Structures are given as structure tokens and as C-alpha cells.
């Protein structure tokens, strides 16, 4: 029952009491008024308390809603990063699998690299011996690199591939250079000339003597005098000392020099 209802009921009961007795004094009226005022004051105080509690409840509701909103935001944020973490874990697992594969590949690459160097070494020794010192030195460097722990497996393999590429390019290259040639126990300074792997010639610096390499017999054979001019012109062209022109060069075949 509200304060107002209590006051009305009290006033009604008091009036009935007066009616029943038929006596209503001034003192009694003053008491009624005083009681009524007290009831009104209490009602105002109660209303203020109610208003204060209502405001507090509204503040608590507002705070609650803020907490709920923050919770939802944090939950969404955590769910997002949980997805990222799961994706990262999947990537890590994939990388670990790939690393395992790389290790297996490295185990296969090292023996392959050694085999490639060995094959190149044999090829250089059996091939036409142009630029032989340079080519042997290249193979020796590859063998040395294979024992160097500071050079990665990938770099070692790359160096071997580069060496194979250089050997391949020799087949399309025309070159002339000065070097030493041992003929009949004598060491001569000569000009070497090679056109790919087809022709490998040597000519004395005075251009009076020349030789052609016979790879079948692994030796040098003397050239006739009439070949000297053609050999000299070829050497000049390789050194870019003469304009390109048709060359008539002696080629050593299985049947002899032509």
C-alpha cells in the first residue's frame, strides 16, 4: 500500500471515529492535520528514495549494457585472432613439412653435385684441350668449394650449374689466345685458335709453323705451309683485328688433315 493510500485510509478511519462519537475538538483536528503533514513529508522522502534508486538502477543498467557491448567486442576480437592463430599454426605445420622435404632434397643434391663435378672433370680431360688450364682450374675450385662449410648447398649447386653453362658456351665460341705448346720435346710460345669444339689450331708466333689437334689420337699434327695464311687470318678475326670473313680451316678427321 502506498503512502497516499495509507493517509487516505487513516483520515477515513479517523473521520468515522469522530462520526461515531459525535465529538470533534480543535485539538483533534490539529492532530489530524499534523499527522497528515507528517504523512506527506514521509511520502516526499520515500519518493526521493525511489527516484534515487531508480536513477541508480538506470546507471547500473547503462553500465551493464556497456559491459555487454565490450564483451561482445572483445569476443569478436578474440575470435578473429583465434582464427589468425589457427591459420599461423597451419602455416607453421606446412613449413615444417616443407623443411623436412628440403632436408631430404639436400641429402640428394650433395651426391648429385659431386657426381656432376666428377663428370665435368672427366669431360674436360677427354675434350678438345682448348683453354685447358682455365677449365681445370674451374673444376679444382668446384672441388674445393664442396669442402667449404661456409658455402650453402644451394650456392654449391649453382656454381656447378654455372660451370656447365660455361662449358656449353665453348661449343659456340671462337677464341684466340697465346700459350705454351710442347712439340717434340720443345716448348714453344704459340697462338691458339678454336672454333667451338670443331677446330683447335696452334700457330707459331712467326706464322711459319702450324698444328691441328687430333682428338682421336690425343695429339698435335703438323699443318702444311699453304694453311698458314688461313690460320693467321682466323686468329686475327677471333681477336677482332680483322673483319669477319669466310674461313677455310684445316679440320682433323679420322682419315687425316684436310
From TrEMBL:
<dbReference type="InterPro" id="IPR016866">
    <property type="entry name" value="UCP028069"/>
</dbReference>
<keyword id="KW-0732">Signal</keyword>
<protein>
    <recommendedName>
        <fullName>DUF3450 domain-containing protein</fullName>
    </recommendedName>
</protein>
<feature type="signal peptide">
    <location>
        <begin position="1"/>
        <end position="26"/>
    </location>
</feature>
<dbReference type="Pfam" id="PF11932">
    <property type="entry name" value="DUF3450"/>
</dbReference>
Amino acid at each position: 500500500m502506498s503512502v497516499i493510500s495509507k493517509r487516505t485510509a487513516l483520515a477515513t478511519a479517523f473521520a468515522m471515529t469522530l462520526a461515531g462519537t459525535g465529538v470533534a475538538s480543535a485539538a483533534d483536528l490539529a492532530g489530524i492535520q499534523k499527522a497528515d503533514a507528517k504523512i506527506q513529508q514521509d511520502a516526499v522522502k520515500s519518493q526521493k528514495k525511489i527516484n534515487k534508486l531508480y536513477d541508480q538502477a538506470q546507471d547500473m543498467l547503462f553500465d551493464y549494457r556497456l559491459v555487454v557491448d565490450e564483451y561482445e567486442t572483445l569476443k569478436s576480437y578474440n575470435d578473429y585472432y583465434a582464427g589468425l592463430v589457427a591459420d599461423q599454426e597451419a602455416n607453421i605445420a606446412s613449413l615444417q613439412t616443407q623443411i623436412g622435404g628440403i632436408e631430404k632434397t639436400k641429402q640428394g643434391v650433395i651426391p648429385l653435385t659431386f657426381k656432376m663435378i666428377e663428370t665435368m672433370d672427366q669431360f674436360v680431360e677427354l675434350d678438345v684441350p682448348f683453354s685447358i688450364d682455365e677449365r681445370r682450374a674451374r673444376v679444382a675450385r668446384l672441388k674445393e668449394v664442396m669442402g667449404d662449410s661456409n658455402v650453402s648447398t644451394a650456392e654449391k649447386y649453382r656454381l656447378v650449374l654455372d660451370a656447365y653453362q660455361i662449358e656449353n658456351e665453348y661449343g659456340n665460341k671462337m677464341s684466340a689466345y697465346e700459350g705454351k705448346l710442347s712439340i717434340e720435346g720443345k716448348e714453344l710460345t704459340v697462338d691458339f685458335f678454336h672454333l667451338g669444339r670443331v677446330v683447335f689450331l696452334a700457330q707459331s708466333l712467326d706464322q711459319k709453323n702450324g698444328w691441328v689437334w687430333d682428338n682421336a689420337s690425343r695429339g698435335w699434327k703438323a699443318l702444311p705451309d699453304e694453311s698458314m695464311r688461313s690460320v693467321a687470318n682466323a686468329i686475327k678475326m677471333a681477336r677482332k683485328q680483322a673483319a669477319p670473313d669466310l674461313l677455310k680451316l684445316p679440320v682433323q678427321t679420322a682419315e687425316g688433315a684436310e
